[in-house]
Amino acid sequence: MGHALATDLYELNMAASYLHRGMTTRATFSLFVRKLPPCRGFLVAAGVDDCLDFLEAFRFEQEDLEWLSLHGFSARTVDAFRDMRFTGDVEAVEEGRIILAGEPVLEVTAPLPEAQLVETFLLNQITFQTAIASKAVRCRLAAGPIDLIDFALRRVHGTEAGMAVAKLSAMAGFVGTSNVEAARKFGLAPSGTMAHSYVEVFPTESAAFRAFVEDLPPPYTFLVDTYDTLAGVAAAAQVIDELHLTDNVAIRLDSGDLGALSRAARDMLDERGLAHVRIFVSGSLDEYRLEDLVTAGAPIDAAGVGTRLGTASDAPYVDSAYKLVEVGGRPVMKLSTAKETLPGAKQVWRAEQLDDVLACRGEPGPRGAEALLQPAMRNGRRLRPRSSIAEARARIGCDLSWLRDAAKAIRTPVAPEPILSGALEDLAGATRRAVPVAGRSHGPPPRARRGH
What's the whole-model pTM score? Predict the structure, then answer.
């Protein structure tokens, strides 16, 4: 299914008008983030592959056309939609590339009605997945030596979002997920412990822990904070010792002062000769709490990160936009206050130890620089396969090594900014002067600041 009706009504209205007037010239739209949230020093591009899948399968199904006929669209428009497929070209970054404000994630060049109709779906996928991937990478940066597990499924906004979070967290370097279907679909390690209710239905914590071992295969993680946390640690230690559990065993702390409790638990376990027992923590964790735990030297081996990851709680969206930059070979730009755009198809050039350069599409880059936007579709057909999770993870790691430490800071990050090339500045100035707005004068376009 091409999900052609997964769009806003105004996209259908504009496309219908274009078709009615024969306005099918090729147009280029650029999808980018206007500005980063103040708590972000970078973003991680994600959702590109899902966008390419959508574009390749784009079509109106018969039931879509029947619905449109019942809701005011003319027979002429419905017939035009019936035959419509996406026949355009796409330049896009690859999954997992780090991007900055103003840098296109993808650019679509297609007949105007086609390029217009796909806007909503592309923005939906890139906006959500980029927000989550960026949050997950920040958690991974903050966690240092702590292994991370995705616990987000029960608190995200729908199961489809939960699947995306599991995939994106794996891209970021998480080692497992509680989401069983995601583990099956994406080849991830399923991870789970027990609930407090499991402990409560047994007469004692020790009885619950013994039953868990008797009934299930390893690994074994005992939830120890149902009643008194340190008493729970003692009960788990007793069962581990009595049953001679020497591998794949941990205790889980899910509440309270995780730093202090983890230190006390570590001492208790070590005193009993159980240095091999890992300490797993969970409970409203995010990059800020993880950084605090690592800074304090808490002896934590692994952590489950859920609600705040799956909702990107401190920055639940990014200020994304999909804007027309060229139509029929003519560069165009928007001059709205605080929402001004840059004209023309673009390229982003990246080189080690240098600021990114945002340039015109055909403009050569600096010596040794890499072009981030690569051909992804031609004539409606993909040119590259979907990225594996491992490939996306490798790109994230490579770009993080390029990124300044100030941008990777968990608190008060400083985001670099791309430099505008001279040719793009000139194009913006010429396009601005050509904008047909009576009685209005425009100054020169703002030059992007040099990155910090």
Answer: 0.94
